[in-house]
Design goal:
Structural class: mainly beta
Order of helices and strands: EEEEEEEEE
Length: about 110
């Protein structure tokens, strides 16, 4: 397990905020490895100069940058749907080890 830190600087509240989760690490030997740290993403965010709710998550399924599939999951009303199987998704997406991009609106 690795300890990660985050620094943010938001000067004014945007309508939409996108958070990129670094999922890939290039090792000294040049090999790119996927980082599989599980996230505990809150569906609501409250940081200085931005308060919002999650509306979408992009996940990457696959072992590395050379293979895999990106899946878009969006909030539709009270439900979450994805483009992989066009079905309802439960909120376990917030605990994903595959989350790559998080979208929040104010």
């Amino acid at each position: 397990n690795a300890l990660h830190s985050c620094t943010n600087s938001i000067w004014h509240q945007p309508k939409c905020s996108i958070i990129l989760v670094n999922r890939f690490l290039q090792k000294e030997n040049g090999i790119i490895e996927k980082i599989k740290t599980k996230l505990n993403c809150n569906p609501y965010v409250n940081v200085p100069n931005f308060t919002g709710k999650m509306i979408s998550v992009i996940t990457h399924l696959g072992p590395n940058t050379s293979s895999g599939h990106y899946i878009a999951t969006i909030k539709v009303g009270k439900d979450w749907c994805n483009d992989y199987s066009i079905t309802l998704t439960n909120q376990e997406i917030f605990l994903s080890d595959e989350a790559y991009l998080l979208f929040y609106i104010k």
